[in-house]
Amino acid sequence: MSDKLAILIGFSIFIGILFYLKVPSKIAAMLDARANRIRAQLEEAREAKEEAQTLLASFERKQADVQREADEIVKRAKAEATAASEQAQIDLQDSIARKLRAAEERIAQAEAGATREVRNAAAMAATAAAREAISGGLSPESAGSMLDEGIATIGSRLN
User: Fold this and answer.
1) How far apart are CA 33 and CA 39, in angstroms?
2) Is the dihedral of CA 62, 65, 71, 76 positive or negative?
3) In which band, very low, low, confident or very high, does the pLDDT at 20 lie, cut at 50, 70 and 90?
4) How many independent structural domains does the chain possess?
5) Cα–Cα distance between 86 and 106 in angstroms, integer?
6) pLDDT value at 79 more than 60
7) What is the pLDDT of residue 155?
8) Mind giving me the DSSP string for 70-116?
9) What is the rounded distance in angstroms from the CA atom of residue 34 to the CA atom of residue 122?
C-alpha cells in the first residue's frame, strides 16, 4: 500500500469518526449560538444607542429651557434694577426738594425774626426818643439827629 492510500484511508476514517460523533452539527450549533449572542448584543447596543439619543434630546431640551429661564431672569433683573434706579432717582429728587423747601422755610423764619427784632429795636428807639421829647429835654435838632440815627441803625440791621 502506498503512503498516499494510507493517508487517504486514515483521513476518511477520521472524517467518518467526526460525522459519527456529530462533530459538524455540534460545531454548527456552537457557531449558531455565538451568532445569536452577537445578534442579541447588537440589538442591545442599538437599543442603548436609541435610549442615549432620547436622553440626549431630552437633556438638550432641558438645557434650552434652563437657558431661556436664565435669560428671562436676567432680563427681569435688569428691568427691576432699572426701575429701582429710576425710583431711587425720583426719591432723591423728592428728598432734595423737601430739604430745599425746609431751608427756604428756615430762611423765611430767620428773615421774619430779624424783621421783628428790627421793628422792636425801632419801637424801643422811638419810645426812648418820645420819652425824651415829652420830658422836654430834647431840642428839635437833637430829635432830628436821633431820628436819622434810628433810621440808619434800622437800615444796617436789615442788611
Assistant:
1) 10
2) negative
3) confident
4) 1
5) 30
6) yes
7) 65
8) HHHHHHHHHHHHHHHHHHHHHHHHHHHHHHHHHHHHHHHHHHHHHHH
9) 128
CA-closest candidate to residue 128, choices 142, 115, 113: 142
DSSP 136: T
451568532: which residue's cell? 35
Tell me the CB-side half-sphere exposure of residue 111, using CA atoms within 13 A: 7
Per residue in 109-152, pLDDT tens?
988 888 888 778 777 877 776 676 666 666 667 767 777 777 77
Average pLDDT of the chain, as a whole number = 86
- Any idea how long the chain is? 159
Q: Which three cell numbers stand for residue 120?
A: 422792636
Q: Please work out, in degrees rounded to the nearest 5, the angle formed at the alpha carbon of residue 29 by the alpha carbons of 27 and 31.
A: 70
Amino acid at 102: A
| Spatial CA neighbour of 130 closest among 119, 143, 142 | 143
72, three cell numbers: 428671562
Range of the domain at 29: 3-158
Q: Rounded to whole angstroms, how far apart are CA atoms 121 and 83?
A: 56
**Does the model's pTM come out above 0.70?**
no
